[in-house]
Amino acid sequence: MRCTAPSQGHRTSSGRAACPVHGRSSYRSYTSNPSPSNYASSNPSRSGGGGGSSGGGGGSRSTRPRWSPANSSVVYTSDEVSALDRYRSKVEAVEPRAKSYDLFLCHAWDDRRETATELHNLLEAEDVSVWFSEKDIILGQPFMREIDKGLAKTRIGLVLITPALLRRVESGGVSEKELSELLSRDLLIPVAHGVTYEEIRLVSPLLGSRHGLSTEEDSMEEIAKKIAELIAV
Hints:
The protein is 47% helix and 10% strand. By secondary structure, the chain is an alpha/beta fold. Strands 2-1-3-4-5 form a five-stranded parallel sheet, sandwiched between helices.
């Protein structure tokens, strides 16, 4: 196509409209591409601000929960905020102690050197003090007594629910005793890893009824950050 301005001019609206290069048809074709502002509004994941894009499986991405710092980059689902609010209230109600830990990490013996250690290390990297049997029970000390003292020193418990832990609960192992104590005081944040809450309910309806976090929704790193925000007072 060739511009008609040299021969017909563009001074009149009819002359400009008749030009195959600068006429109305060409202008409509150009402006059909969205402007940056239109693109952002039609693509929520590209736009900034308080709202977030929808998350998979756990409800839409929520605005920041009341305990999350204003400068936090952690994103929660609405279901997570609803589930975690009860634990936040428990943390706020616990009086500070002379020598205490933020969390008691309840886990299956089979998970102690891999998944449980990974979560422990990630939590401590977020400045959370964790009572962890692998670190806090010295060889030769009475195992159950040390667990009992660990429970007494912690503000709230976190249970890493895996297939191995569910097997321990079914067999009535040490994990089951820790769970019983923390459940009785309603001081237990569940983190599901490799299992669903539906599967947990089949083994322990009481434990499975307490929704919390899951590695189906977030990475272990993100979960550690959420727990750190949740228990900060």
